[in-house]
């Protein structure tokens, strides 16, 4: 793959997915795309990249984006965010939402399902308190292949050993040969949909908690700012945004403020949001509001 082809690939990935490839990632790109090129009957990655600009190239573009998407994850990854969800966010939200008894949670980079299923297991631990509540877990990802895997809910011994407590494994999984499958009950708690974070969030409604972990790291600052500011409009005024280890909203937008008692946890900034609503008011009136 010559430099002009790599530059085109980088531009396409940034425009269509937000993924930023630096010059030192050319070998990585070629390794990931070689088998894909052969699947399409092409001799080289160069042939594949050149074919993307053709009128019939859309299916190949989607396949290239999926091949370049990192889907590495695990159950209860980093542990702390899930402890915060169970011990900090849920108690506060249960009290604040007692009037309408409804919770909406969005996993904005669900990958192969380990994160939303981990959240579902946390919720099952409070099943008695949540009896009669309407719970929605929306899990989205750019990769259709990852989502198909997630919907099946079948994981290897290695997958479950990396993070699932033995009690949860026995309670929520059934063993088949060398694999473990998530229970039908847990699978029914999660709705999986393909979604690109560069797309419009309008129509998604408001969420009490948004998990957007380990995805912003692949974006450049301009795209991070855009995603975070649009995400602030779908996080409830007393809701939460959970980012990955090493990710932050600080210095990128004033619409989120760090939690005073939980590292890595962000809440909507009411002062910034009021200003945003005032500025947006003429537009909202023009389109009829929400």
Task: Walk me through this protein's architecture.
The chain has about 290 residues and is α/β, with parallel strands linked by helices. The chain folds into two domains: about 5-70, Chemotaxis receptor methyltransferase CheR, N-terminal domain (Chemotaxis Receptor Methyltransferase Cher, domain 1, Orthogonal Bundle), CATH 1.10.155.10; about 80-280, Vaccinia Virus protein VP39 (Rossmann fold, 3-Layer(aba) Sandwich). Helix content is about 45%, strand content about 20%. It has a seven-stranded mixed beta sheet, with helices on both faces. Strands 3-5-4 form a three-stranded antiparallel beta sheet. A hairpin with a 2-residue loop joins β4 (about 175) and β5. Mean pLDDT is about 90; it is low at about 275-290.
Architecture of the largest domain in CATH? Answer: 3-Layer(aba) Sandwich
pLDDT under 50 segments (min length 5)? 273-290
Q: How many distinct folded domains?
A: 2
Write down the CATH topology of the largest domain.
Answer: Rossmann fold
How would you sum up the global shape? Answer: globular
Number of strands: 10
Key phrases:
290 residues, 12 helices, Rossmann fold, 10 strands, disordered C terminus, alpha/beta
């Amino acid at each position: 793959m010559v430099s002009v082809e790599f530059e085109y690939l980088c531009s396409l990935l940034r425009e269509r997915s937000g993924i930023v490839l630096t010059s030192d990632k050319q070998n990585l790109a070629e390794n990931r795309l070689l088998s894909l090129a052969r699947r399409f009957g092409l001799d080289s990655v160069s042939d594949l990249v050149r074919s993307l600009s053709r009128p019939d190239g859309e299916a190949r573009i989607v396949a290239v984006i999926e091949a370049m998407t990192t889907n590495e994850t695990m159950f209860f990854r980093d542990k702390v965010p899930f402890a915060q969800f169970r011990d900090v966010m849920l108690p506060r939200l249960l009290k604040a939402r007692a009037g309408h008894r409804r919770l909406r949670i969005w996993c904005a980079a669900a990958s192969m399902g380990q994160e939303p299923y981990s959240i579902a297991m946390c919720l099952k631990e409070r099943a008695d308190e949540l009896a009669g509540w309407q719970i929605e877990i929306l899990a989205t990802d750019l990769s259709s292949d990852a989502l198909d895997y997630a919907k099946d809910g079948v994981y290897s011994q290695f997958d479950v050993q990396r993070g699932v407590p033995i009690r949860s494994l026995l309670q929520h999984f059934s063993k088949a040969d060398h694999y473990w499958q998530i229970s039908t009950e847990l699978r029914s708690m999660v709705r999986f949909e393909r979604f690109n974070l560069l797309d419009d969030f309008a129509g998604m409604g408001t969420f009490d908690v948004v998990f957007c972990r380990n995805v912003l790291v692949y974006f450049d600052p301009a795209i991070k700012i855009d995603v975070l500011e649009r995400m602030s409009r779908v996080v409830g005024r007393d809701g939460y945004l959970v980012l990955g280890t090493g990710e932050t909203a600080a210095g990128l937008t004033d619409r989120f403020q760090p939690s005073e008692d939980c590292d890595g946890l962000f809440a909507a900034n009411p002062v910034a949001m009021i200003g945003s609503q005032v500025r947006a008011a003429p537009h909202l009136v023009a389109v009829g509001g929400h």
